[in-house]
Design a protein that fits this description.
mainly alpha
Length: 378
């Protein structure tokens, strides 16, 4: 029997696409590259958000303390002590005279001011006594001012502009050493002549001169203050071993010694170092230059957010821990400084830490050494 149904045509199936081996390799490489980028980018974005959050929290802690965040604010933070006569002009003039004398040819052969032999014990002949007295006579006006500064319990605000950050210069701070050396020579002249009360007055003048740096907010300034204080304390120890110091003079000396506040000086310095480190993070290329920046540019930069967020957050955090420790005691500050230094060593021990915290590793001061110096002075 015949089959009269129409014949159905067969529809060919679409051909299976052929992928070349080259395209397959490129596709796999692309996927792998995307995976690598994601593995790097995602943690980077997350860590940046975390760093920004840490930075904002640290900034709020600084503001809550009423302390400067930038070097522009540091200029306002550094001020003469309230309730005491501002003798900045007089002291600068006196220190300039001492500097001129200290740079003279005569000074090079003298003790303390130069490379001369140390003054002998009281009662022994001092061959250079006449030379020292002549040297000091050229500075009589300056020495009178230094003693007047002590009698009036003077204070200063040296004309330092901290805006350039690490390029800030401290000329008066360095000149203060010269004034201290001239007072030290005057002390030895009085000691040699048996003028004990005058020798005590000279020690007090040295201690007062050191106090001119109490409010200056850098570790360098505080280390100079400690060095001058240490010189005066050494002279006091020498004097009480060699001579009979009256009760009245001992009370005068004790009164001046009790004015020393090493902990507050340290806290002022920590505030300054914190502001300088933060300011560098705003524009590292600008502020890492040791040359002063053009006028006006710094203030524009200080309105920006930090370019080095990780560094800014870390340096603020480490500094604040030490500062908050100093609120309690020098011992607590030292504990926090030791912990901070260990953290810095850990950061420097791996490549990620070196990249993220390059400026922290470069700029963080030797906090423990500074605190040790404050503790010894205290």
């Amino acid at each position: 029997m015949a089959n009269n149904q129409p014949k159905t045509e067969e529809i060919p199936l679409p051909a299976t696409p052929k992928i070349s081996s080259g395209r397959l390799v490129l596709g796999c490489l692309g996927m792998a590259l995307l995976a690598v980028v994601a593995a790097i980018a995602i943690p980077w974005v997350v860590s940046n958000r975390q760093a920004n959050a840490r930075l904002n929290a640290a900034v709020q802690r600084v503001k809550a303390r009423g302390e400067p965040l930038t070097t522009v604010e540091l200029n306002d933070f550094y001020a003469a002590a309230q309730g005491r006569p501002d003798m900045t002009k007089e002291l600068m003039e006196a220190l300039a005279l001492c500097e001129i004398a200290g740079n003279s040819a005569e000074a090079k052969t003298l003790p303390i001011a130069g490379e001369g032999t140390a003054p002998p014990p009281r009662g022994e002949a001092w061959e250079q006594l006449a030379e020292v007295e002549k040297y000091l006579s050229s500075q009589q006006q300056a020495l009178d001012t230094l003693h007047e500064f002590a009698r009036r319990d003077g204070t200063v605000r040296f004309p330092i502009d901290f805006t350039p950050g690490i390029a800030t210069l401290l000329p008066e701070t360095q000149r203060l050493r010269g004034g201290a050396r001239s007072l030290a020579l005057q002390f030895h002249v009085h000691r040699h002549h048996g003028e004990i009360s005058e020798a005590v007055s000279t020690i007090i003048a040295q201690l007062a001169l050191a106090s001119a740096l109490d409010n200056e907010p850098t570790l360098v300034s505080q280390l100079v203050r400690i060095a001058v204080t240490g010189m005066a304390i050494g002279e006091a120890q020498q004097l009480v071993r060699e001579a009979q110091v009256t009760d009245a003079d001992l009370r005068r000396l004790q009164t001046q010694l009790r004015k020393i506040d090493s902990r507050q000086g340290l806290k002022n310095a920590l505030a300054g170092e914190r502001a300088i480190c933060y300011t560098v993070c705003l524009d590292p290329g600008q502020f890492m230059d040791v040359q002063p920046t053009p006028p006006g540019i710094e203030r524009q930069i200080l309105q920006r957010q930090p370019k080095r967020v990780f560094d800014a957050a870390k340096m603020l955090e480490l500094n604040l821990k030490i500062t908050e420790g100093a609120d309690e005691s020098l011992f607590k500050a030292r504990q926090e400084a030791l912990a901070a230094e260990q953290e810095i060593r850990d950061l420097g021990g791996n490549i990620v830490g070196k990249i993220y915290y390059m400026y922290t590793l470069l700029l963080t001061p030797a906090y423990t050494s500074a605190i040790d110096a404050c503790a010894r002075s205290a």
